[in-house]
Amino acid sequence: MIWMSTITTGWGVISMARIDHTFASRIEMFGGIDFTACYNCGHCTAVCPLVEENASFPRRMLRYTILGMEEDIQSSLDPWLCYYCGDCSETCPRQSNPGEIMMSLRRYLTSVYDWTGFSRRFYTSRKWEFGSIAAVAAVVVLLFALFLRPTADPSGLINADGGVKINSFVEGMSSETFVSVIEIGDWVMAAIVSFFLLSNIFNMYLKVVVRNRKVSPPLSLYVKEAWNLVYHFATQIKLSKCSDRTYWGLHWLLMSGYTIMFTMIVLFLPWFQVEKIHPIYHPQRFLGYYATFGLLLGLIVWSVQRIRKSGEKHRYSHSTDWLFLVMLFLTTLTGILVHIFRISGMVPQTYYTFVIHLAILVPMLVVEVPFSKWSHLAYRPFATYFYNLINSARMLEEKKKK
Ligand code: SF4
Ligand code: SF4
């Protein structure tokens, strides 16, 4: 039920706020747990290492959620400024799990920004979650079965160096054509993923900057603050302020490994996927090994921590958290197997594992990047960008008034 009401919070009177009493129960579907026990004491905000003057989370978000102030949450950047270190949940006297509510709100906001409605279904229905992954995987396998079947005579598929020619499997198709086909597929996939992700980010921009009409940043500020995007994406520097700095190191290792692998596969495929097996010191192999190491280490440590429920940030796992970890792990594992089979000269094993690898990789990218857990890699730097943009615009306006 929706009411218009005058609300008083720790930040003064908010007149005629729109409140929805069903909101708290809806947030439970995104993973929120026991948060209604919160009595607004503010310990969580006091211990949060990332709180700044204009971002008093997580208490404010807890309050808004319990009161059902959905529009205020939708126009807030606070959930994205939290990196889920878990410090607040450790100190909460009511065990209201403020860190988990921030995580749940990020899932909820991802579904709000997504205009297709797919993200909401993905987060709230396991049938949709697993069904969509299975459907995209089936399309990949079907495409190989129909158009990219292996040659009946594998005798010419071994290189002079003893390795398998990864691009010459397909009956009647040259190595160059095969790479071009996979590359075109890569570009089509990247275009689709980028379209959905960027349009969702635009939706986020409309909600947090345009409709939240507290300030109107001039164009020059958009350019001036743009460095935030690259800097925060590349360094994840805010996470380093949390008490557990190892977590930052692991997060960075995994993120850089993923970004390197994604860049090599999508932007430099003809350089990355070649017939010749390069010596171990070649940059192509070195970068591949670095990315694999970063991904594997991060995935193993986080999976073990989630299984053991060690620390507040691993105490609760939504099904989408596990799906993300499992799919990334299987993608990495099948990639390693393709490499081992290749350098060992094992022809059928290389081909079939390559198809399985793509049948896991493609749905992970198509479904996870724009609609689910992976999207936080884009939303976080944009949130920091919008946050700094709004603050700079506010300062500029105050300066003009003086
Ligand atoms: S979440 Fe816990 S620490 Fe934070 S305001 Fe509520 S009761 Fe206090
Ligand atoms: S989980 Fe960490 S970063 Fe997030 S609100 Fe709590 S203390 Fe702050």
Biggest sheet: strands side by side, in what order? Answer: 1-2
Mean pLDDT: 90
Principal-axes shape call: elongated
What characterizes the major β-sheet?
Answer: 2 strands, antiparallel
Oligomer type: single chain
Helicity, in percent? Answer: 55-70%
What is the SS-derived class? mainly alpha
Report low-confidence residues grouped into runs of 5 or more. 9-15
**How far apart lie the N and C ends?**
44 Å
Strand content: under 5%
Number of helices: 18
Tally of structural domains: 2
Brief characterization of the structure:
The chain is mainly alpha-helical and 402 residues long. It has helices spanning 23-28, 43-47, 59-67, 70-74, 78-81, 87-91, 98-113, 118-124, 126-147, 175-210, 219-224, 227-235, 245-266, 269-272, 283-308, 319-343, 347-371, 376-401, and strands at 2-9, 12-20.
Task: Give an overview in words.
This protein has 402 residues and is mostly helical. It folds into two domains: 2-113, Alpha-helical ferredoxin (Fumarate Reductase Iron-sulfur Protein, Chain B, domain 2); 126-392, no CATH class. It contains 18 helices and two strands. The protein has a two-stranded antiparallel sheet. Strand 1 (2-9) and strand 2 (12-20) form a beta hairpin. Helix 7 (98-113) packs antiparallel against helix 8 (118-124), helix 9 (126-147) crosses helix 17 (347-371) and helix 12 (227-235) packs across helix 18. The longest helix is centred in the middle third of the chain and has 36 residues, at 175-210. It is elongated and about 75 Å long. The model is unreliable at 9-15 (pLDDT under 50).
